[in-house]
Design a protein that fits this description.
It is a single chain. The protein is of the alpha/beta class. The protein contains 9 helices and 6 strands, in the order H-H-E-H-H-E-H-E-H-E-H-H-E-E-H. Strands 3-4-2-1-5-6 form a 6-stranded parallel β-sheet, sandwiched between helices. Strand 3, helix 6 and strand 4 form a beta-alpha-beta unit. Helix 4 packs parallel to helix 5. The longest helix has 24 residues. The chain starts with a helix and ends in a 14-residue tail after the last helix. Bound molecules: farnesyl diphosphate. The site of farnesyl diphosphate (FPP) has 19 residues, from helix 3, helix 4 and helix 5. The site of farnesyl diphosphate has 19 residues, from helix 3, helix 4 and helix 5.
Length: 264
């Protein structure tokens, strides 16, 4: 199956996915790629299907992109699957979205294990329905010994909530005299974020033509490269992922310095 995929052509005369993959792997690979998976609803509407059909198709894209991310050698793939604001959606849609981790992780767990993928989650776990929690815990436990790609689901995640929680924890340490106010610095704040054990994203991808962050990893994305594409998430495929990485590899990351500046 992978062979077939790798033989697939980018275009009539373009390089194959396999050739592009080889080239991408020979250059600097982003360690952490974060994706705002957007456009499921529009994908469904264009086909006169209910919105949930778009989410279901989006789930298949998650499988596809996990596989190519692993092949590329990306270390962490964080996917924005449900935001703290998504509770405002119709109940039927929320119920469906809450069932998707169960379906995805049950169906593809053997494949994830075989690919040495480790499943993790960031977000407010406690507020998830019991069946969603069970599926996530099962996948986290079953893949906990894997040391390949970290597939990190941002589920009931909101960056402002994450920061508020970090501030509360740090304030409590100060109240308990366990830290002095002078000790509060960037690295202490980082150590209280849900991503404290992960590198910052090198690359953020958002699909569907929307150009905003929607309360996603606001702290962590401070120096990330952004890639926005018009492609709707269910249509985002291996070629799109490689294009985003190729675009990243053309960028000159300066992190606030002038290194590489041609001297203007
Ligand atoms: C935004 O598109 C998408 C979401 C809120 C849900 C994303 C979820 C998935 C892609 C499936 C996740 C799979 C697993 C395994 C957890 P939208 O509905 O806002 O699209 P629209 O802007 O076109 O309406």
């Amino acid at each position: 199956m992978l062979d077939k995929l790798l033989r697939k052509k980018t275009g009539e005369n373009g390089p194959s996915i396999s050739d592009r993959l080889t080239k991408v792997k020979s250059r600097t690979i982003p360690s952490h790629v974060a994706i705002i998976m957007d456009g499921n609803g529009r994908w469904a509407r264009r086909r006169s299907l209910p919105r949930i059909a778009g989410h279901h198709e989006g789930m298949k894209t998650v499988r596809k992109i996990t596989r190519i991310a692993n092949d590329i050698g990306i270390k962490v793939l964080t996917l924005y699957a449900f935001s703290t604001e998504n509770w405002k959606r119709p109940k039927m849609e929320i119920d469906f979205l809450m069932k998707l981790p169960g379906e995805f992780l049950t169906t593809y767990l053997p494949e994830l294990i075989e690919q040495n993928v480790r499943v993790e989650m960031i977000g407010n776990f406690d507020a998830l329905p019991p069946h969603t929690k069970e599926a996530i815990v099962k996948a986290i436990e079953a893949t906990s010994k894997n040391d390949g790609l970290i597939l990190n689901f941002a589920m009931n995640y909101g960056s402002r909530l994450e920061m508020a929680m970090a501030v509360k924890e740090i304030a409590q340490l100060a109240v308990n005299n366990e830290i002095a106010i002078e000790e509060i610095d960037e690295s202490l704040i980082e150590s209280h974020l849900m991503t404290s054990h992960l590198p910052e994203p090198d690359l953020l991808i958002r699909t569907s033509g929307e150009v905003r962050l929607s309360n996603f990893m606001l702290w962590q994305l401070a120096y990330s490269e952004f890639s926005f594409t018009e492609v709707l998430w269910p249509d985002f495929d291996e070629s799109c992922m490689l294009s985003a990485i190729e675009e990243f590899q053309m960028r000159n990351r300066r992190f606030g310095s002038v290194e590489g500046d041609k001297g203007n």
